[in-house]
Design goal:
Length: 180
């Protein structure tokens, strides 16, 4: 079984911008490409797990999410890094149409991590979830992963709500260096 590092996207890899979907609005958090490259070099599978309720709310489409992920992948490739898998939850209970439903993939539920484990033979107990929100930490813990909260994005405001089992780091790069 593989060890993975699950990464939240907005506020962890890129600067938090409400309902980000346009590549021209995308900006890496300083050090994020290097952090992902270090994870690649250390042999971790890198899996992005991101809630994208903007789809359910009608702000953008699943194609927009996938286009942005392709853009991020190209930018990472230029930095010598890569993400092995991209999973996202397009649902929200107050959304529209077929997306307006409760699901098990929306963090803080562990559905995306469990789906990745099934698809890619990932050992969740030996994997790590890194994110900037309590929902990321809770999803990781529910899946049986070690958890790290980063202070970027919403993390500085969420730090006080984490328990002693969650490591807190300034950003993704410092989190990865603490792992390695």
């Amino acid at each position: 079984m593989k060890r993975a590092v699950f990464l939240d996207r907005d506020g962890t890899i890129n600067i938090e911008k409400e309902y980000l979907y346009k590549k021209e609005d995308f900006e890496f958090i300083t050090g994020a490409p290097e952090a992902i490259r270090l994870l690649n070099q250390a042999g971790f599978m890198v899996v992005v797990v991101t809630n994208q309720s903007g789809v359910a709310r009608g702000y953008y489409t699943e194609d927009d999410v996938e286009n942005l992920h392709r853009h991020i992948a190209r930018e990472l490739k230029e930095a010598g890094a890569h993400v092995d898998a991209w999973l996202y939850c397009p649902h929200h209970p107050s959304g529209r149409g077929s997306y307006a439903l409760p699901c098990d993939c929306r963090k803080p539920l562990p559905g995306m991590l469990q789906e990745a484990a099934r698809r890619y033979d990932i050992d969740l107990e030996n994997s790590i979830m890194i994110g900037d929100k309590l929902a990321d930490v809770e999803a990781g813990q529910a899946a049986g992963c070690r958890t790290i909260l980063v202070r970027t994005g919403y993390g500085a405001g969420e730090e006080q709500h984490t328990g002693p089992q969650t490591t807190v780091c300034d950003d993704l790069l410092s989190a990865v260096k603490s792992l390695l």
